[in-house]
Request: fold
Amino acid sequence: MNSVELMVKEHDNILRMLKVVRKACMNILNGGEINYDDFNNMIDFVRKYADAHHHGKEEKFLFKEMQLKLGKLGENLITHGMLVEHDYGRLYMNDLTEALHRVKNGDEESKLDVISNAIGYASLLTRHINKENDAVYKFGENNLPADVMEEINKKSEEFENEAEKQGIQKHYIDMLENLEKKYLA
Reply:
């Protein structure tokens, strides 16, 4: 599996988590209590699997080469598009974490902020993933020289193997499956 195929597969896992996030928010909207452990797991998944693991490969390998080798169009697409959206996602997660803390400390109105930040993140990432799968990855694959793509694939494979030794993929996919059983059953 090359690096782009791997990243698309990871997108599928992230989209699965976004469905869980939406269901957890629907539960709050319907008057249910916030399950802080579940939300903390969702945030952990986003920060460590979607951001550090998945975005890590994008930012360190594919996007870096697109910025360096694909001229102004590549630079603008990555710097003013994809990386900005990654930062917005991080902001949503920070704001969600703060909102959960406020609710836990008795601020009922902050439930609105929990829902808005979680749903904002889910909406942002859904659109972001569609852009990457349908345009950004294809632009990179079609325009980066073959030797550069081979190097990206090699670095991504090394990154992936190191993460596998640490059990990152298994841990977060197990977490995802457990949350799906709870929220999507």
